[in-house]
Amino acid sequence: MGVNPPVLPQAYEAEGVHIDIVSLQNEPEYASGGYPTMSMSWSTQRDLIRDHVGPKFEAAGITTRILILDHNWDLTSYVENIYADEAARNYIAGSAWHCYAGEPSAPGSIREQYPEKEIHFTECSGSGWDTNFGSSFGWNLQNLFIGQTLVGSRTVMMWNYALDENHGPREGVTGGCADCRGVITVPSTGGFKENVEYYAIGHFAKFLPVGSTRIGAKTYPDDMEVVAFETPDNELVVIILNTSWNDSKAFEVIIDGLYYHYENLPPRSAATLIGSGRAGSRPVQQMPMHLSDFDGGAYLTVFIGQTLVFLFLLLVV
To answer: Would you place residue 285 in the very low, low, confident or very high pLDDT band (cuts 50, 70, 90)?
Structure first.
C-alpha cells in the first residue's frame, strides 16, 4: 500500500506552518454525492494508523498528533473498536466529534474508559433549520461550549467560519450544504454580519486564552448551566447560561463563604464573569455591564468588581 503521510505536515512545516493535529478522514461514516466524501470503516482507520501513518510519523520525527473518528456523537463504538488495539492506540492522541447525531454527553464515556486520550469537538454548523436566535444561542452554549468542555473536550469549533448570503461558495449548483450558516455572513455586496454562533463563541474565546484549564463548578438546577476555567494568568472565568424559554433567573455566586446575588439573567441568555487571581488577591477589574437583545435571546457579558473570587471553583478536573 503506497502511503506517505509525512509529506503533508513536512510541506507545511517548510512554509513555517506547524500542523498540531490531523484526522485521517472527515466524517468517515458518511457518504454523499453532493460533495466530496469518503467512507472509512473503523478497521481501515485502525490499520492505516497502526501500520502506516503512525510508524511513518514516528520514523520521520513528526510531532503532529493523530485524532480518530471526526464524526458524530452516536459513533462511540467506532472509537472503542480502534482503541481496543493497543498497537494502534499508542499512535493516537485522541478522538474528534461532531454534533449531528447522538447525545452530547457521549464523548464522556470514552474519556472515562481512556482518560489519557484527548477529546476534541471539531464541527457543528448553524443552519436555516433553526433561525431563532434564542434557540440557537442556548443550544450551542448548553451542548457545545459548556457541554463539550464538561465532558473533557479541549476544543470547540464551529463550521463554517464565513459564508455568503447563499450559504456558499459551494461546489456546483447542488453541491455542499444548501442551508449551512457561517459564524459570520459575508455578502457578495460587501461587509459582514455576525450570526448567533459569533456571540456564543464570544462568551468563551474572548476570555479564554490558549492554556486555560477547566476547573470544578457545580451545575445549577432549575434551567441553569455553568462551566468555569482558570487562565494561565490565574484569572477565573465563569460562564452561566439560563436555558429557560420564559423566566429570568436570579442566582448566587459563593465567594469565600459569602453569597453574592445576581438578580436578573434573561431567558436564553448567558453571563461571563471574570475574577482575577485566587481568593484574597487583587480586585477584579470593574467594567460596565453590556446587554444586547436579539429576537428573544441576549448576549450578556459581565465583569464583577469584587475583591474575592469564586472559591467553589478550586478543584481542578
So the answer is: very low
Residue with cell 456546483: 172
What's the helix, strand, coil split of the chain in %, to 5? 25, 30, 50
100 Cα distance to chain centroid: 14
Which one, of 194, 193, 187, lies nearest residue 166 by Cα? 187
CA-CA distances (angstroms) from residue 87 to 51, 54, 106, 201, 280? 9, 10, 24, 37, 49
pLDDT at res. 294: 31
Count of alpha carbons within 13 Å of 187, Cβ hemisphere only? 7
What residues have CB less than 8 Å from 135, skipping those under 6 apart?
Answer: 268, 297
Spatial CA neighbour of 20 closest among 11, 9, 7: 9
Q: Is omega for the bond preceding 169 within 30 degrees of 0, making it cis?
A: yes
Angle between helices 106-113 and 76-83 (to 10 degrees): 10
CATH architecture designation of domain 7-203: Alpha-Beta Barrel (3.20)
- Identify the H or E element spanning 83: helix 76-83
From CA 255, how far away is CA 277, in angstroms rounded? 13
Cis before 160? omega within 30: yes
Counting runs of H as helices and runs of E as strands, what totals does the chain give? 9, 18
Give residues with Cβ within 8 angstroms of 26, minimum separation 6: 37, 70, 71, 123
d(CA 122, CA 106): 14
Checking if the pLDDT of 170 tops 90, the result is: no
Residue holding cell 438578580? 263
Question: Do strands 258-265 and 269-276 pair parallel, antiparallel, or not at all (unpaired)?
Answer: unpaired
| Domains of the chain by residue range | 7-203, 214-313
